[in-house]
C-alpha cells in the first residue's frame, strides 16, 4: 500500500521521453524530497493542532477572553515574512499545477500536493503563533523552532536536488521559489530563537511592563494591541461597525481612548522635539526650525508612511501592465494558438514584458522548453496574471491605509503625486515616441492647472479670512446674545454676519468655478492624450496597435485621471501647510510680550525709582517667606501669611490692582523683575472664571492634579459646591458648556476657587474671589476655605478684594492707589499711621453686605445643559463616523474592488476560452474594472461626508423650526414713548418656558415715573427674572406689564427693547471701534458720544488713545479693565436716552469708591429717569426712593429704605445685617 502511494505520488508509471537518464534520476530524488516535505508539514499540522486543542480546551487558558494580545519581539517582521511565505507557496502551487498541465500527459501529484500541505501548515502555524501571544505562553515557541528548522531542512533538500539538475538558473520558477522559501524559513527560525532568548530566558532583555491602559475596562479601542493582520484590516473595529449599524453611536460607546490619541501626548512629543531643536541652534544664534522639529518629533512616522505610500503607488501600476499579458493570453486562447509549440511568439511582447519587469531575468524564456515551467511561462498565463492583479490590489489598499493611519494620529497627511511620472515613463516604454507626443498635452495643461491652483490659493486665503471674521462675529453674537436681545441689536449684528457671509460665498463660488475647470482638465486630458497617442502610433509605430498594447496603454492613461484630479488638492494642501507652518514659525519666534499694546500704556507708572521684585526667601527660622516690593515699598510675608491687596481708587487706565496679580503668569514688563526662588503658586483670576466644556470634577477642579477623593470632598464643602452638584442631573459628571455657559456666575467663581484650593502649591493668588457671591456663601468661602483650609496647610495667600469686612483675617494689608503702594501693614499699623483711611473703612464695613449674583433659574440652566449635551452627542457621532470611514471601510472597499477584478478577469477569460468573448472585450472589461476600487472608496467617503454634512443640515432645519420671539405687535407707540417712565405690574406670573414652574408668581407692584427703586433678595428670589420680564425675554403667561399706560405685550418687540436701557452685570464690549461699541446703530453724533464718555468718566482715557473714538477694542474688550468696561456700558446706556434704566448688579466686580462714583453719576445723569437697581451691595440701594424685596418669586416687602430698616423683623434688615 505504501509503495503504491509513493508510486502514485511520484507518477512512476510515466516515462519522460524527452529527458536524459540523469534528469530522470534527478526527478526521482526531487519527488523523494517533496515527499519528505509533505511528511514534515503534515506531522507538524497534527502536532500543532493537537497542542492548540489541549491548551484551549483542557487548561485554564480556555477561560481567557481578551481582545488584546502581548506582542512578542519581532512580531511585525514575523507576520510579514509569514505572509510572504504564504504568497510564495501560492505561487508554487500555481507553478505545480501549470507544470502538470503543460508538461505531462499523466498527472503528477508531487508537483502540487506539497505546496498545498505547506499552505495548510502555514495557516496552522500562524494560528499557533497568535494563540502563543494571546495566551502569553512563550514556551510554545519551542515547537515553532522545530517547525521552521525542519521546513528549512526540507527546502534545502529540494534546493540541492534542483541545483544538481539546473544549476543556479533562477528562470526555473520551482528553483527560484525553493531558494526564496529557504531564506524565509531561515529568517523565521532566527526570529523564533530571538523570542526564546528574550521571552523564555530573558537574556539581555527586560520585558516591558504590561500596558496600564489595558487594565481599564473602558479601553475598547485596542487596535494597537492586536496582531498585524487585524491591525491592517481593522478587524478589531468590527464591534464598532456592528454597533453603529444597529444604533447611532454615542461618546460612551467608544470608551476611553489610548494615550497616543490624546492631544496631550502629541503635545509632549512636539514639545520635546522643539526643545531639542532649540538646544541645537542655541549656540549658533539661529531660530529653531519647525520643519526640522516635525522631522525630529515625527520623522519616523513620516518616513514609514512615505515608504508605504511609495510601495502602494508602485503596486498601483501592476494592473495596467498585467492587462497586456492577459489580453495576449486571451488572444492566443481565442485563436487556439499553443504557447508550448508556437515558435512565432512575438518577440516584441517579450521585449515589452522584459522592460516592464526590468531586472527580472525573463528575456524571451517563453520559447524555452524545460521539465519545470519557467518564470516567463508562468507570468504569461492569463489566470496567473488575474491572480497577481487581485493580490496587488489588496496589498496596495492595505499599504495605503496603513500609510494614512501612521500619520493620522499625529495629524499629518502625506501627499505623493509621483504616479504621473511613473505612468508617463511606462507609456513611453510601451508606445515609444508616440506616447511622448501625446503626453505633451499634459505639459501644455500643467501651466494652466498651476495658474488655476495659484488663483485658488489666493481665493482660499480670502475665504479663510472671511470665515475667520464671520466665526469671530458669530461667536461674539452668541456670547453676547443676552445683551443684544436686551438692546434689540440682533438684526444689526445679524446683518454684519450676513454681509461677511455674502462676501465669503462670493469667494467660494469663484473657488468652485476654478475647481470645475481644474476637474474638467484633469478628466479630459488623459482621454484626449489617448486619442492623440493612438492616432500617432498608428502612423509612425513600428508595429500594429494590437489589443494587448492598446488596452495596457488605455489603462495607464486612465490611471492618470485620479492623480491629475488630486494634484490641485495636493498643491493646495502643500501651500496651506507651508503657510500654516510659517505662521506658527512667526508665533514661536516672537519675543515675549514686554509691553501692552492697543494704545494701553505700560503699568510702570510710578515704578521708575527702584527695581520691583516678588520672590521667596528663607528667614532664620527656616520658614519660607514671600517678598513683595512695589515703588520703593517692600514687605516680607511668611509662608502661612494671608495678604490682602486693597484697591482704593477708581480703576483708571493702567491701575495695578488686578495687574499686580496677573504679572507672575501673564505679561511681565521689562522693568519688572519677579522671582519665586522656592515653592510654587496657584493663580485664580475670578473676575473672569475660565471653564472648559468638560466634566465638572475632572479635570475642571483637579486641573491635572492627581485625584484624592477625601481632599476633593473637602474642597467641595469649603467652597459650598456640594448643594449645587446635588441639584445637577449628572452630579459632578455634568458636562460644562463653553466658558461655563450652563453655570451661574457664582458657581463658576466657586469652581475656579476650588481649583486653586485643590492644588498643592505654596502660594495662592486669588483675584477678587468673592465678587459674585452672596453674603452667606462669600462668608462661608472666606472663613472655611481661604482662612481655615489654606492657613492650615501653611500656604501663603494673596487676595485682591473690595470686601473690607474680611480685612480682620489678613496678616498684611497692601493698599494700591494709582499703580502704587499707598499703604501696607497689618490693621493696627494702618490704624496708627492712617487713621482717616481706617475710619473710612470702618464706616463702609458697617453698611457692607452682599446680595447674590444674578443667575438663570435652575430649570432654564437644566434645559440649556440638556441642549448642550445633545449637541455634544451629535458631534461625537460625527467623529466616530470619521473613524469608521478612514479605517475599516477603506480597506473593505479595496478588497471588494479586488474581488470585482478577480471575478471580471476569470469570467471573461473563461468566456473567451469558450469562444463567447473576444480578447478585445476582455481587455476593455479589465481596463475599467481595475479602477473600480478607487471609485468605491471615493463613493463610501462621499457618502460618509454627505451624511456628516447632512447633520449640519439637520441642525439648521431643527433651529429653523424652533419657535422664535413674537416680534410683531398690535400697537405702534409714538416715537417719544415712554415719556414718563411709569411702570405697573398687574398680577404678573413669569416662567422661562412653557411647562416649567413659574419664577415670578402673581406680582403686583408700581414703580412711579422718575423713581429710583432698589430690588433685592436671596438667590433664586426672582430679581433678574423681573427685569427680564420687563424686556419680554421670558414668558409672561399671566397678568400684564404697563409702561406709561401701554401694555408692553402689544408693542413690537424691537420697539420695546429700543426704548429701554440696561447696564448688565457682565460688561460686554464688542470687537471693533469705541464708536461702534457706544453706538452700533450709528445714530449719534461725535459730540453726543464725547458727552456720554465724559459722564462715564472715560473722556480722558479715550482722548489719550491714538485713534480716540476710532481706537480698536480687542476681542471681549480685553484691552480695557473690568471697571472701564462697566463704565463703557454706562455710557452706552446714557446714549439710549431712555426714560427707564435697569442696573442688573452692574457694580458687582468694581471697588467701593468706583461704586459710589457710579451711583453718583446715575443719580445726576439719570435724575429724571426711572431707575431699577438689582442690588449686589445693599449699601448701593440705601439711598433709593423705594426698595422691593423678593423671595421665591413673590413680593415680600415694598417700601422706602428707612421704613424697612425701622422694622427689625423685616426681610430687608436680615439682608443688610447678613449672617
Concise structural overview:
The chain has 1219 residues and is of the alpha/beta class.
Question: Can you tell me about this structure?
Answer:
With 1219 residues, the chain is α/β, with parallel strands linked by helices. Helices cover 56% and strands 10% of the residues. It contains 39 helices and 21 strands. The strands form 5 sheets. A 6-stranded mixed sheet has the order 5-6-7-4-8-9, with helices on both faces. A 6-stranded mixed sheet has the order 15-18-19-12-20-21, with helices on both faces. Strand 20 (1186-1191) and strand 21 form a beta hairpin. Helix 2 runs parallel beside helix 4, helix 3 packs antiparallel against helix 4 and helix 5 (141-166) runs antiparallel to helix 6. The chain is elongated. It starts with a helix and ends with a helix. Mean pLDDT is 77; it is low at 13-19, 338-369, 594-635, 647-679, 685-699 and 850-885.
Strand content: 5-15%
Tally the beta strands: 21
Largest sheet: 6 strands, mixed
The geometry reads as elongated
Which residues form runs of ≥5 with pLDDT under 50? 13-19, 338-369, 594-635, 647-679, 685-699, 850-885
Q: What is the gyration radius calculated from CA atoms?
A: 41 Å
Secondary structure category: alpha/beta
- Share of helix among residues? 55-70%
Kindly report how far apart the N and C termini lie: 107 Å
Number of helices, counting only DSSP H or I runs of 4 residues or more: 39
Mean pLDDT: 77
How do the strands line up in the largest sheet? 5-6-7-4-8-9
Amino acid at each position: 500500500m505504501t509503495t503504491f502511494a509513493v508510486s502514485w505520488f511520484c507518477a512512476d508509471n510515466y516515462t519522460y521521453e524527452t529527458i536524459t537518464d540523469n534528469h530522470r534520476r534527478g526527478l526521482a530524488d526531487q519527488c523523494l524530497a517533496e515527499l519528505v516535505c509533505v511528511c514534515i508539514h503534515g506531522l507538524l499540522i497534527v502536532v500543532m493542532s493537537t497542542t492548540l486543542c489541549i491548551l484551549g480546551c483542557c487548561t485554564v487558558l480556555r477561560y481567557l477572553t481578551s481582545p488584546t494580545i502581548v506582542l512578542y519581539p519581532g512580531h511585525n517582521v514575523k507576520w510579514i515574512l509569514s505572509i510572504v511565505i504564504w504568497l510564495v507557496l501560492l505561487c508554487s502551487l500555481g507553478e505545480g499545477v501549470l507544470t502538470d498541465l503543460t508538461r505531462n500527459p499523466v498527472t503528477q501529484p508531487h508537483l502540487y500536493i506539497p505546496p498545498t500541505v505547506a499552505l495548510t501548515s502555514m495557516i496552522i502555524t500562524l494560528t499557533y503563533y497568535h494563540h502563543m501571544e494571546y495566551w502569553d505562553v512563550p514556551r510554545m515557541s519551542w515547537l515553532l523552532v522545530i517547525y521552521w528548522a525542519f521546513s528549512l531542512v526540507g527546502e534545502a533538500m529540494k534546493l540541492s536536488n534542483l541545483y544538481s539538475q539546473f544549476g543556479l538558473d533562477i528562470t526555473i520558477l520551482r528553483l527560484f521559489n525553493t531558494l526564496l522559501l529557504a531564506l524565509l524559513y531561515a529568517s523565521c527560525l532566527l526570529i523564533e530563537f530571538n523570542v526564546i532568548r528574550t521571552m523564555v530566558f530573558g537574556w539581555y532583555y527586560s520585558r516591558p511592563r504590561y500596558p496600564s491602559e489595558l487594565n481599564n475596562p473602558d479601553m475598547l479601542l485596542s487596535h494597537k494591541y492586536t496582531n498585524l493582520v487585524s491591525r491592517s484590516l481593522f478587524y478589531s473595529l468590527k464591534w464598532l461597525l456592528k454597533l453603529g449599524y444597529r444604533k447611532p453611536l454615542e461618546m460612551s460607546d467608544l470608551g476611553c481612548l489610548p494615550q497616543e490619541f490624546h492631544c496631550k501626548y502629541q503635545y509632549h512629543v512636539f514639545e520635546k522635539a522643539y526643545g531639542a531643536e532649540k538646544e541645537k541652534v542655541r549656540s549658533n544664534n539661529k531660530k529653531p526650525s519647525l520643519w526640522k522639529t516635525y522631522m525630529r518629533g515625527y520623522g519616523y512616522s513620516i518616513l514609514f508612511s512615505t515608504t508605504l505610500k511609495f510601495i502602494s503607488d508602485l503596486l498601483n501600476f501592476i494592473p495596467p501592465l498585467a492587462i497586456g499579458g492577459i489580453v495576449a493570453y486571451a488572444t492566443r486562447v481565442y485563436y487556439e494558438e499553443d504557447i508550448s509549440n508556437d515558435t512565432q511568439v512575438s518577440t516584441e511582447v517579450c521585449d515589452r514584458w522584459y522592460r516592464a519587469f526590468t531586472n527580472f531575468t525573463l528575456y524571451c524564456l517563453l520559447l524555452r522548453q524545460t521539465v519545470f515551467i519557467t518564470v516567463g511561462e508562468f507570468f504569461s498565463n492569463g489566470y496567473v496574471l488575474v491572480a497577481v492583479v487581485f493580490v496587488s490590489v489588496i496589498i496596495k489598499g492595505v499599504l495605503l491605509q496603513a500609510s494614512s493611519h501612521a500619520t493620522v494620529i499625529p495629524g499629518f497627511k502625506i501627499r505623493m503625486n509621483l504616479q504621473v511620472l511613473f505612468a508617463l515613463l511606462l507609456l513611453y516604454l510601451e508606445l515609444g515616441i508616440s506616447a511622448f507626443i501625446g503626453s505633451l498635452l499634459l505639459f501644455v495643461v500643467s501651466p494652466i492647472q498651476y495658474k488655476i491652483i495659484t488663483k485658488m490659493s489666493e481665493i482660499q486665503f480670502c475665504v479663510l479670512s472671511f470665515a475667520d471674521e464671520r466665526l469671530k462675529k458669530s461667536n461674539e453674537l452668541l456670547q453676547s446674545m443676552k445683551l443684544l436681545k436686551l438692546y434689540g441689536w440682533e438684526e444689526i449684528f445679524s446683518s454684519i454676519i450676513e454681509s461677511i457671509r455674502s462676501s465669503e460665498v462670493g469667494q467660494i463660488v469663484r473657488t468652485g468655478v476654478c475647481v470645475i475647470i481644474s476637474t474638467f482638465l484633469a478628466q479630459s486630458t488623459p482621454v484626449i492624450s489617448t486619442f492623440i497617442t493612438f492616432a500617432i502610433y498608428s502612423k509612425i509605430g513600428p508595429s500594429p496597435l494590437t489589443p494587448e498594447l492598446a488596452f495596457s496603454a488605455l489603462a495607464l492613461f486612465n490611471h492618470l485621471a485620479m492623480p491629475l484630479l488630486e494634484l490641485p488638492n495636493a498643491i493646495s494642501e502643500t501651500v496651506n501647510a507651508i503657510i500654516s507652518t510659517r505662521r506658527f514659525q512667526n508665533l514661536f519666534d516672537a519675543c515675549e510680550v514686554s509691553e501692552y499694546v492697543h494704545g494701553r500704556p505700560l503699568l510702570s507708572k510710578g515704578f521708575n525709582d527702584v527695581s520691583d521684585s516678588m520672590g521667596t526667601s528663607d528667614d532664620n527660622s527656616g520658614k519660607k517667606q514671600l517678598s513683595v516690593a512695589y515703588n520703593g515699598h517692600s514687605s516680607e510675608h511668611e509662608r502661612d501669611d494671608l495678604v490682602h491687596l486693597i484697591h482704593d481708587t477708581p480703576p483708571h487706565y493702567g491701575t495695578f490692582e488686578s495687574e499686580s496679580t496677573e504679572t507672575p503668569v501673564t505679561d511681565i514688563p521689562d522693568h519688572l523683575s519677579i522671582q519665586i526662588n522656592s515653592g510654587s503658586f496657584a493663580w485664580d483670576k475670578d473676575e473672569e472664571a475660565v471653564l472648559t466644556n468638560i466634566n465638572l470634577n475632572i479635570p475642571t477642579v483637579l486641573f491635572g492634579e492627581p485625584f484624592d477623593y477625601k481632599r476633593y470632598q473637602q474642597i467641595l464643602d469649603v467652597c459650598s459646591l456640594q448643594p449645587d452638584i446635588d441639584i445637577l442631573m449628572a452630579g459632578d459628571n455634568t458636562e460644562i458648556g463653553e466658558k461655563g455657559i450652563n453655570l451661574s456666575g457664582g458657581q463658576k467663581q466657586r469652581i475656579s476657587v476650588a481649583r486653586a484650593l485643590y492644588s498643592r502649591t505654596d502660594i495662592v493668588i486669588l483675584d477678587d474671589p468673592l465678587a459674585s457671591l452672596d453674603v452667606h456663601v462669600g462668608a462661608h468661602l472666606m472663613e472655611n476655605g481661604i482662612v481655615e483650609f489654606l492657613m492650615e496647610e501653611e500656604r501663603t495667600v494673596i487676595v485682591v478684594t473690595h470686601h473690607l469686612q474680611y480685612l480682620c483675617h489678613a496678616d498684611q494689608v497692601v493698599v494700591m492707589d494709582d499703580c502704587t503702594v499707598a499703604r501696607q501693614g497689618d490693621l493696627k499699623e494702618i490704624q496708627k499711621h492712617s487713621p482717616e483711611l481706617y475710619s473710612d473703612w470702618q464706616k463702609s464695613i458697617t453698611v457692607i453686605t452682599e446680595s447674590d449674583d444674578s443667575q438663570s433659574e435652575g430649570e432654564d440652566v437644566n434645559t440649556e445643559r440638556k441642549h448642550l449635551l445633545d449637541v455634544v452627542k451629535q458631534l461625537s457621532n460625527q467623529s466616530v463616523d470619521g473613524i469608521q470611514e478612514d479605517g475599516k471601510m477603506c480597506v473593505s472597499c479595496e478588497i471588494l474592488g479586488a474581488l470585482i477584478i478577480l471575478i471580471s478577469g476569470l469570467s471573461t477569460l473563461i468566456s473567451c476560452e469558450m469562444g463567447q468573448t473576444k480578447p478585445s472585450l476582455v481587455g476593455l472589461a479589465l481596463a475599467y474594472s481595475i479602477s473600480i476600487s478607487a471609485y468605491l472608496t471615493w463613493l463610501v467617503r462621499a457618502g460618509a461626508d454627505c451624511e456628516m454634512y447632512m447633520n449640519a443640515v439637520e441642525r439648521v432645519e431643527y433651529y429653523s423650526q424652533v419657535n422664535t420671539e413674537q416680534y410683531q405687535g398690535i400697537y405702534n407707540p409714538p416715537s417719544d414713548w415712554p415719556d414718563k417712565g411709569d411702570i405697573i405690574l398687574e398680577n404678573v406670573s413669569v416662567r422661562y418656558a412653557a411647562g416649567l414652574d413659574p419664577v415670578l408668581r402673581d406680582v403686583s407692584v408700581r414703580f412711579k415715573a422718575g423713581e429710583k427703586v432698589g430690588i433685592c433678595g436671596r438667590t433664586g428670589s426672582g430679581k433678574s427674572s423681573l427685569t427680564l420680564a420687563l424686556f419680554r425675554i421670558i414668558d409672561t403667561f399671566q397678568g400684564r406689564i404697563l409702561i406709561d399706560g401701554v401694555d408692553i405685550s402689544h408693542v413690537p418687540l424691537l420697539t420695546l427693547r429700543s426704548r429701554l436701557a440696561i447696564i448688565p452685570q457682565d460688561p460686554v464690549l464688542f470687537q471693533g471701534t469705541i464708536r461702534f461699541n457706544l453706538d452700533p446703530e450709528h445714530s449719534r453724533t461725535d459730540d453726543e458720544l464725547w458727552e456720554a464718555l465724559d459722564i462715564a468718566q472715560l473722556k480722558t482715557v479715550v482722548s489719550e488713545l491714538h485713534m480716540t473714538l476710532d481706537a480698536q477694542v480687542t476681542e471681549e474688550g480685553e484691552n480695557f479693565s473690568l471697571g472701564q468696561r462697566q463704565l463703557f456700558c454706562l455710557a452706552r446706556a446714557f446714549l439710549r436716552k431712555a426714560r427707564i434704566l435697569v442696573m442688573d448688579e452692574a457694580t458687582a466686580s468694581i471697588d467701593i469708591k468706583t461704586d459710589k462714583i457710579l451711583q453718583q453719576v446715575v443719580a445726576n445723569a439719570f435724575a429724571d429717569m426711572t431707575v431699577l437697581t438689582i442690588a449686589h451691595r445693599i449699601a448701593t440701594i440705601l439711598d433709593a426712593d423705594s426698595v422691593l424685596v423678593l423671595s421665591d418669586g413673590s413680593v415680600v416687602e415694598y417700601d422706602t429704605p428707612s421704613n424697612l430698616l425701622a422694622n427689625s423683623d423685616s426681610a430687608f434688615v436680615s439682608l443688610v445685617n447678613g449672617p
